[in-house]
TrEMBL record:
This is Vacuolar protein 8. It comes from the Eukaryota.
């Protein structure tokens, strides 16, 4: 910005050199003289009130273009050095100058307004006083400097949530989208920055899509300017939050994934991070989960996952979690070398979200393949879980116990998991304050107790070792669940007891038969005929190969009936001498019913979350979305 005093001097020296001096109104002459004096003492002068502001206002509303230029330039330089909340008496003259037909006046006035728009209060007042309309007109100016300043001002105004919808409805999005293609990099940066600021609400994102912003933003991913790349990548990431927009992107932008994968190798850390986040949002859809792998996105994600920079770790962990949802991606992810880095992140205590993403990914990778389950255990995942699970935050505990429950579905791994002492940490967690952690831990214990094709060599001594400890052991855990008012917990307990009896282990059978805690509760459940109905459990996202006997297919009445059937089966053993034989109606893995008993202290919302969590833990084929 040029020096204001010299500019004012130039205006009036040039007049004196003419054959006659243009006539100025008396108040304009006084205003010029006053302004020159104030500018000499600018460091101690407040130009936003009193006589200095009066002088600027007089020049602004003059019919003399030279005086308007002087006022506009003065406002621009003053606001560049000092920004404070201002009132209407300051903004009115600047907004008037915006409507000038003179390019120099437009340029300086929009620069002044953009400077003031850095202040939160000013952002709101500028829009309230009608500042958007003249700014939109200036965005359409053929002058690049005017375009740049006008767009920059709109970018600042758009950082306030209360302004976003007003800007979207003002007609500004179409010219902003057009200016994003400008050959002038300053204009392009300001325009893409403004578009980004407009992507933080559903309604505004839809307005942007309607204004044709998507193809422009995708094209500019290939810009050589880091700021433009960042603005466009972040804007597309926000747009991809909406399922309808992902569908449009899939139909119209075939190069989007390839461009984002390439940007994960950008020299700029912030661009790398936003590219991974954009891919994470896209990977909410099955099509993109496959496409990211096909576009060679795994190696850049692995590199970011092993970074020491938290935002990169977090964005890549979130992305690979979603990519791992698709069954076809399980083996490619493991073969690309993700297992050890993911296991290492389980102990990433600086960020709970990173831990959750890492363990949820491991659970997804274990969902449908025995080979993958074996690889995950061999890589040390269960050892890390056992070491960490009692100390990590509750959300991480829920994910870890769900992962163990999925791994425990493998008959080939049950013995190994038991030998590792996993029950020692699962049993305390069945008494967690979190119903999800309780349910997932019980699911894991139940799956460990169950086995298809039992043989005489099956070793159930691990359950005897933890019958009374830690924290009351299996005995107290089963008692708590049997006496719970929640039918989900009741069902888990009776099913698990049946599995332990079917093992044929003499010590376990004796422990159960002689228990003064378990048997009375089992008798009560065997006689119970009433249960408070609840709404049916809604489905959770599942892969295409979900088990046919899934938890969600057990209706309320059927669940209660199965509890009675299992309880009576236990009593047949307790009251008689015959061993418990496997029943053909009993599924090979725990399938707790969806009913909940009355008088429960757990809210309906908690029940729903519990049933979803336990269903995923037992079913093994449900996958964790983010």
């Amino acid at each position: 910005m040029g020096n204001i005093t010299s500019c004012c001097d130039f205006c009036f020296h040039s007049r004196r050199s003419q054959p006659y001096e243009p006539l100025l109104l008396e108040n304009e002459r006084e205003a010029v003289a006053d302004l020159l004096q104030y500018l000499e003492n600018r460091t101690t002068t407040n130009f936003f009130s009193g006589e200095p502001l009066t002088a600027l206002t007089t020049l602004s509303f003059s019919d003399n273009v030279d005086l308007q230029r002087s006022a506009a330039l003065a406002f621009a330089e003053i606001t560049e050095k000092e920004v404070r909340p201002v009132g209407r008496d300051t903004l009115d003259p600047i907004l008037f100058l915006l409507s000038s037909h003179d390019t120099e006046v437009q340029r300086a006035a929009s620069a002044a307004l953009g400077n003031l728009a850095v202040n939160t209060d000013n952002k709101l007042l500028i829009v309230k006083l009608g500042g958007l309309e003249p700014l939109i007109r200036q965005m359409l100016s053929p002058n690049v400097e005017v375009q740049c300043n006008a767009v920059g001002c709109v970018t600042n105004l758009a950082t306030h949530d209360d302004n976003k919808t007003k800007i979207a409805k003002s007609g500004a999005l179409v010219p902003l989208t057009r200016l994003a293609r400008s050959k002038d990099m300053r204009v392009q940066r300001n325009a893409t920055g403004a578009l980004l600021n407009m992507t933080h609400s559903d309604e505004n994102r839809q307005q942007l899509v309607n204004a044709g912003a998507i193809p422009v933003l995708v094209t500019l991913l290939n810009s050589q300017d880091t700021d433009v790349q960042y603005y466009c990548t972040t804007a597309l990431s926000n747009i991809a939050v909406d399922g309808s927009n992902r569908k449009k992107l899939a139909q119209s932008e075939p190069k989007l994934v390839t461009s984002l994968v390439q940007l994960m190798d950008s020299p700029s850390l912030k661009v790398q991070c936003q590219a991974a986040l954009a891919l994470r949002n896209l990977a909410s859809d099955e099509k993109y989960q496959l496409e990211i792998v096909k576009a060679d996105g795994l190696q850049p994600l692995l590199r970011l996952l092993q970074s020491t920079y938290l935002p990169l770790i977090l964005s890549s962990a979130a992305c690979v979690r979603n990519v791992s949802i698709h069954p076809q991606n399980e083996s490619p992810i493991i073969e690309s070398g993700f297992l050890q880095p993911l296991i290492n992140l389980l102990s990433f205590k600086d960020n709970e979200e990173v831990q959750c993403h890492a363990i949820s990914t491991l659970r997804n990778l274990a969902a449908s393949s025995e080979k993958n389950k074996l690889a995950i255990v061999k890589a040390g995942a269960v050892h890390s879980i056992k070491e960490l699970v009692l100390e990590v935050p509750m959300n991480v505990q829920s994910e870890m116990t769900a992962c163990v429950a999925v791994l425990a579905l493998s008959d080939d791994l049950k013995g190994q998991l038991l030998e590792m002492g996993i029950c020692e940490v699962l049993i305390p967690l069945t008494n967690s304050p979190s119903s999800e952690v309780q349910g997932n831990s019980a699911a894991a214990l139940g799956n460990l107790s169950s086995k298809d094709g039992r043989t005489a060599t099956d070793d159930y001594s691990a359950f005897n070792d933890v019958w009374d400890k830690p924290e009351g052991g299996m005995h107290q855990y089963l008692h708590r669940f049997l006496s719970s008012p929640d039918a989900t917990f009741q069902h888990i307990a009776v099913w698990t007891i049946v599995q332990l009896l079917e093992s044929g282990d003499p010590q376990l059978m004796s422990n159960i038969r002689n228990s003064g805690l378990l048997v009375p509760n089992v008798r009560e459940l065997a006689q119970s005929r009433s249960v408070t109905p609840t709404s049916s459990v809604g489905g959770t996202p599942r892969s295409h190969h979900s088990q046919s006997h899934s938890y969600q297919e057990t209706e309320t009445g059927e669940g209660q009936g199965e509890i009675q059937q299992l309880a009576r089966k236990i009593l047949d053993f307790v009251d008689g001498d015959e061993p418990v034989l496997p029943a053909s109606s009993t599924p090979s893995q725990v399938q707790p019913g969806s009913s909940v008993g009355h008088a429960s202290s757990v809210s309906g919302a908690d029940h729903e979350e519990l049933r979803k969590s336990v269903r995923e833990a037992f079913g093994g084929s449900s996958r964790g979305y983010q």
